[in-house]
Amino acid sequence: MHLGTWLHLLPGSAAEIDAVVDGLAARGITTLITMFKSWTGTIYFPSAVAYTEPGFAAEDLYGRLIARCHERGMAFEAWSCVFPEAGPSKLIDAHPACRALRKDGTEYRVEGNGIAWACPARAETQAHELAAFREVLARYPTLDALHLDYIRYPDTDACYCPACQTEFREQYGFNLLEDVMPGGWEGPAFDAYVRWRTGHITRFVENVADLAHGAGKALTAAVFPYYPSIMFDLGQDWAEWCRRGLLDAVYPMNYNWSPLMVGRYTDLAAHLLRPTRTLHCQGLGLKDAMTADDVRALAQSALDHGAEGIILFEARTLLKLPEATLAPFRA
Question: Alpha-carbon distance 283 to 148, whole Å?
């Protein structure tokens, strides 16, 4: 059984790393997915590509985490929050025109993770984010997989930068500001808008897949389960990525605390993935108020409806639960 968990932030000491890995191993986790590039744009090891996250320049904690996972028999996936560049960003410092813009020309910003994004359509953006994956592979050749997250647009409010307006007009003959209408989103520009945005995101997935598979590593992704509406909303066509064999495993983020709804969303993903060779694991969101029985009910529903494994968000919440929480699924 594929039992994984996302570890959102890298532990800040060797002792904490050891405690986290030991605790997850005791709970039967087979795969740990840990962020190396955060939504701020910084990287959790000394990097030549991006700014290094404060506190992680002196000691190679990321390398220690990989080694400890392997010692305990766990696979390790290197996780990037791909297109957000919300904090100190070498990309934006070098190429300020890569900042994602709203229709009114202002910087795209919202509260929460990923408050500011780089424009996914820009060649400079894609080159920078691909270089981060290339760097983590070169630095840590023993990792097992690369993991894509935020592999999308933030929503339909971005990006409307001058380069996007020009490209959309030249490729499809439509005015990005006027022909793709807010609210109803109807008319002949609709399909062009969907194809254009999904095309840019898929192009990046293709390049990372070539990189990962060329190095003998797997490629996985955290995706939104609301297919196909997310093709329009976010430019994310993960079903097509799987049909084409770009992803070795996909983790729909089924963060719903109802076993009934978890089952329904899993049905949809299982149907889409049945013709593919992509491993299908449902991403389940944990809350502090959950009991072990609550977690087991969600996991069982996902497995009963066609998932081949589960990925839990997030590791630190899982560690608050009893060691036997996942015991029924540890075969």
Answer: 14
pLDDT exceeds cutoff 70 at 62: yes
All structural domains of the chain with their residue ranges: 2-158+194-329
pLDDT tens, 196-244? 999 999 999 999 999 999 999 999 999 999 999 999 999 999 999 999 9
> The domain at 2-158+194-329 falls in which architecture?
Alpha-Beta Barrel (3.20)
| CA dihedral of residues 13, 19, 25, 26 (deg, nearest 10) | -170
Structure tokens at 320: 């608050």
CB half-sphere exposure, 171, CA atoms < 13 A: 17
Cα angle value 265/270/272 (rounded, 5°)? 100
> Does pTM top 0.70 for this prediction?
yes
Residue 159 · residue 121 · CB < 8 Å: yes
- How far is it, in rounded angstroms, from Cα 246 to Cα 218? 9
